[in-house]
UniProtKB/TrEMBL annotation, chains A, B, C, D:
<comment type="pathway">
    <text>Purine metabolism; IMP biosynthesis via de novo pathway; formate from 10-formyl-5,6,7,8-tetrahydrofolate: step 1/1.</text>
</comment>
<dbReference type="InterPro" id="IPR041729">
    <property type="entry name" value="Formyl-FH4-Hydrolase_C"/>
</dbReference>
<dbReference type="InterPro" id="IPR002376">
    <property type="entry name" value="Formyl_transf_N"/>
</dbReference>
<dbReference type="InterPro" id="IPR004810">
    <property type="entry name" value="PurU"/>
</dbReference>
<comment type="similarity">
    <text>Belongs to the PurU family.</text>
</comment>
<dbReference type="Pfam" id="PF00551">
    <property type="entry name" value="Formyl_trans_N"/>
</dbReference>
<dbReference type="GO" id="GO:0006189">
    <property type="term" value="P:'de novo' IMP biosynthetic process"/>
</dbReference>
<dbReference type="InterPro" id="IPR036477">
    <property type="entry name" value="Formyl_transf_N_sf"/>
</dbReference>
<comment type="function">
    <text>Catalyzes the hydrolysis of 10-formyltetrahydrofolate (formyl-FH4) to formate and tetrahydrofolate (FH4).</text>
</comment>
<dbReference type="InterPro" id="IPR044074">
    <property type="entry name" value="PurU_ACT"/>
</dbReference>
<feature type="domain" description="Formyl transferase N-terminal">
    <location>
        <begin position="89"/>
        <end position="265"/>
    </location>
</feature>
<dbReference type="InterPro" id="IPR045865">
    <property type="entry name" value="ACT-like_dom_sf"/>
</dbReference>
<dbReference type="GO" id="GO:0006730">
    <property type="term" value="P:one-carbon metabolic process"/>
</dbReference>
<dbReference type="GO" id="GO:0008864">
    <property type="term" value="F:formyltetrahydrofolate deformylase activity"/>
</dbReference>
<feature type="active site">
    <location>
        <position position="228"/>
    </location>
</feature>
<keyword id="KW-0554">One-carbon metabolism</keyword>
<protein>
    <recommendedName>
        <fullName>Formyltetrahydrofolate deformylase</fullName>
        <ecNumber>3.5.1.10</ecNumber>
    </recommendedName>
</protein>
């Protein structure tokens, strides 16, 4: 059996679901998962389908061509189609913090993530030994305000060389350049160590401590031009109390950062997220 | 616009979704919500649909008849269809505990529950004043092992008189008779004050305390012949610690009981639950 | 047995705990609960004690006098002492939303709250019937920008008349005047329907929806001159998704508001909160 | 400054706290943390203290001797005293599952755990490469019913050789022998992949799936002679729904197992747990 995943969004119209499901039936496919959502305010329709086809009739090209002609053109759909075999290629950007890196590489090695990690890129050498432990190519690309352009160029070269599909900033503490954002629109995932939109920017645990909150959080989001303002993929929280110090907040927060980033990576790699109007539809 | 909700389950087969959505389209209806699930082990298909029809063409009888002929018969479907106007009638069974009763009546009075409460039935007189505060008929139906048959008869009479659709046991501490269970199969909701299947039966907070658990729970489920063994609708938990006494467990548990029961009532009244193989499918 | 609760805070110094516990021992008292906290940044010591004394030697006045002389004066302590019998008197301020009011009155009637509610004050007549259901005096005190002074005067008269110890704003949507805040410093509890400091001010559910957050929250805090900036007592959260509308956010949020406000009321009434530097120490 | 932690438990008596805090004051120590608990049913007093002493007067032996004479003997205390420098030595027992092992070694390498891991012991060779990646000695000790005695002997030899203080079973799927349990009473931590006491024994995710629960859990506990019946240290849960398969349960559960085990390890290594009557007091 061949298994494919289809993502669709378009203006909401009558009979979309009937047309898509008829199409799958006409191709002798079996729907094993279907989820849909209508944004009533914006009048946009979203759909995610998983289907199985028996291998002998299977032809991905004709499936795609007919989808374009019979569905996408008349309904003016934006759509993507993925086979189960294609594993997306993910680049890890890191800096000096190692806890998210260890967590991702542990999950990756344990076979929990449906993706490949061809490269780790960092603006410091510190985490190189970890990359070596896990036998993943590590590239040191210095990056500061002064050498932004050289840095970006080196990054883009590496991303092209390793055929990277999406990027994860695992506590990478540098600004991403507009060029890179434009090339990987809705394909760069950041983890921010607060419950956004509370405490954007630097030192959120310090701000949370000062404000005396009873709950701290972490947020994974797609990177956009606005700092910590991109579409939110996943959030989670942990209880804190007066008895914890800032250092305790930071330590508790590490577990949030690990978990929330790992979930976002998995959702993206499994094609379960769609972005619209600076928000995400997450079919989980 | 007329709004209806359709629940379907049947053996999993090809083209069910296409057929149902074609049918809705053929009736000029608009699907505003669709959720489906396939139990791969049992090969059963479940579906919940919300559709809108413009009022002028609207004819519920023909919609139902054609559904039966065109879909239910060929696919051997079990199905239910509800209009938004019909509010299900719920009977409350209580005993001496008042916290769930106050919570449900508060929500009901605040307009949060899409249902009617025509009657409260109790084996004690204690909570009658609360029913009076909220102007809901209260009937005292004594019930013990010795007078089980008279009790059941009186209950059935009241349920028929008030045209009751489903029953909620809001900490009603008596056994429900097999006759009543059979008449209201998957329509009697109980709240059990533990995280089932841990601590079934009497005094679960005492057992939880003795075992030294770090988390307590509450479980709402449909009542079946097996004590605390029916299909689970909803569960939730709260953290506890060594510093809490049994009385603290009980007090903390009251919030769980209130919330978990209120959620189950709402899910049932909105036709979001389906039962199969002693489990629930909850389309929430 | 007589049971008392003592709250202390003062500059951190050596031997405070030894001195206080010696004092209790010297009075033949038995410590049944002791919790303490040191704010290392501010060098402030906080303590909460529950003690039992056998009734025959019991003399509250001498206990207080000796505490003042032997401990409070040498250590420059701020302190409070409460007997278990004194129940604090709470005034409820409401407007048009009824869900928190129903919840508090239900808990109160069910005997869950160690306090008295002598009066409900509102700027509208809408919720008067609910107060009547629960047999609690209801006073309509109109309040708008234009008649702020008359409103405040009427409020202060009622609070004095009913000997009110603390005030709860159960979704009371009006500004509290500086005079009232000053008279009830750290004794006015508000519930804000967001996860502060995210979304302060009006319509937080709408802002949360627009931002596409995956978690919503509620926050109870003491009222200060800054809008939604007072010391946080308690917070909680609930998961949301793209499939929920603003109305769904509001409905889900009602459960958060109820719970978070009820917990804050209970903590305050049990003398488990202390305020320092716009933060709370909560000994729970 | 020298920092020590003291754990005490004894029969509840008057003036214990005063006596202990006086003692610390007499030694010119400063209490930076104090937590206590009285088990009212069993009449047992528990206490955990962190104190600082200025280095020049510091003498651990005299501190311990005087504690024994002045406090432990008269009050019949069980007590332990730890300096901050001593890091407990932890042995990891693993089998074939690698996710908890990766997580623990990642945290260990990232400097989050106040302990040393001198050895990993396994009944299979599978995870040896992971131990090598992290440069930790790995010993293969075959263990089956038939060779229980040789296995136990080899384990005990290794534990002695590496001077092990406590043992963590990171999804080690074999029975621990009574001898080993007796030698490491309340010093062997297991992670069980259910919300105990629900679903003890083998295949808890399968049982949870079959029962149709809406929440799954994980439990860390000290190992005793009764299978999955030891004192619970920590538990946590995750929501599941009808749409998840058994494989999804297992995958979701891995995050619970990782987190709950990591927290238990940290609590134990920081001397924050005490065991009494098959329950834990956790001063966190």
């Amino acid at each position: 059996m061949q298994k494919i995943t289809i993502l669709i969004h378009c203006e909401d119209q009558k009979a979309i679901i009937a047309s898509v499901t008829n199409y799958i039936a006409s191709k002798d496919g079996n729907i094993i998962y279907l989820d849909q959502h209508v944004d009533a305010d914006e009048n946009v329709f979203f759909m995610r389908l998983e289907c199985e086809f028996s291998a002998k009739n299977w032809n991905l090209e004709s499936l795609k061509n007919d989808f374009e002609t019979q569905l996408a053109t008349p309904f003016k759909m934006f759509w993507e189609m993925y086979t189960q075999e294609e594993k997306p290629k993910m680049a890890l950007f890191v800096s000096k913090y190692d806890h998210c890196l260890y967590d991702i590489l542990g999950r990756y090695s344990a076979g929990e993530l449906p993706l490949e990690i061809p490269v780790i890129i960092s603006n410091h050498e510190d985490l190189k030994p970890i990359a070596e432990r896990f036998s993943i190519p590590f590239h040191h690309v210095p990056f500061t305000k002064e050498i932004k352009e050289e840095g970006e160029l080196a990054q883009l070269d590496l991303l092209q060389h390793y055929k990277i599909d999406f990027i994860v900033l695992a506590r990478y503490m540098q600004i991403i350049t507009p060029n890179l954002i434009a090339k990987y629109r809705n394909k760069i995932i950041n983890i921010h160590h607060s419950f956004l939109p509370a405490f954007p920017g630097a030192k959120p645990y310090h701000s949370a401590f000062k404000r005396g909150v009873k709950i701290i959080g972490a947020t994974s989001h797609y990177v956009t031009e606005g700092l910590d303002e991109g579409p939110i993929i996943e959030q989670d929280i942990a209880r804190v109390s007066h008895s914890l110090s800032i250092e305790d907040f930071i330590m508790k927060g590490r577990d949030l950062e690990r978990l929330v980033l790992a979930r976002a990576i998995k959702l993206h790699a499994e094609h379960k997220t769609m972005v619209y109007d600076n928000k995400t539809v997450v079919f989980s």
